[in-house]
Design goal:
flat, AN11006-like, DUF7730, 45% helix, 159 residues, binds zinc ion
Length: 159
């Protein structure tokens, strides 16, 4: 009697089993983008110019007020934002490897010194928040382990 064997292929691609050099090339393709001052608005953005020769507000300008004389007020858009950063949230290994590519292969530019200072302050605040959460997590784990140790000691003492 013939036997039919069905094999189910894994639904996810084993990305982390690729050689590191290949993974780095993929991170580079995904995470390296032109600097803000070289970007253009996407065609569907309301700030995109309708003709190639007409000027447009650069995507990195995020202020709501008119950024330059003669330009209308601009509510900002997301055209200058980096895309595909979610790959860094895949897991710790992807974060470590992808972050290295993101921060070493990209050019970061700022419209004004104030925008740089704001960006830097945000990064510093995020780092401090992450460290605070890590400390809280470690404190919680330490308290939990101390409670378990005390409980084991108490149980041993009653036997
Ligand atoms: Zn835009």
């Amino acid at each position: 009697m013939p036997v039919l064997v069905l094999r189910v292929r894994p639904k996810t691609f084993p990305f982390l089993r690729l050689p590191r050099e290949i993974r780095d090339l993929i991170y580079e393709l995904v995470l390296v983008e032109p600097p803000n001052h070289q970007r253009r608005h996407v065609a569907t953005c309301s700030a995109a110019s309708l003709t190639p020769s007409s000027p447009e507000i650069p995507p990195f300008v995020t202020e709501a007020k008119a950024p330059f004389p003669g330009f209308p007020a601009f509510d900002g858009c997301r055209c200058a934002n980096r895309s595909h950063l979610a790959v860094l949230l895949t897991n710790r290994q992807a974060y470590e490897e992808g972050s290295r590519v993101l921060w070493t292969k990209n050019v970061f530019s700022f419209h004004t010194i104030d925008s740089f200072n704001q960006w830097f302050a945000d990064k510093k605040q995020l780092k401090q928040e992450g460290e605070r959460q890590s400390l809280q997590r470690n404190r919680h784990i330490r308290d939990h382990l101390a409670t378990r140790k005390a409980e084991r000691k108490r149980v041993r003492g009653t036997k």
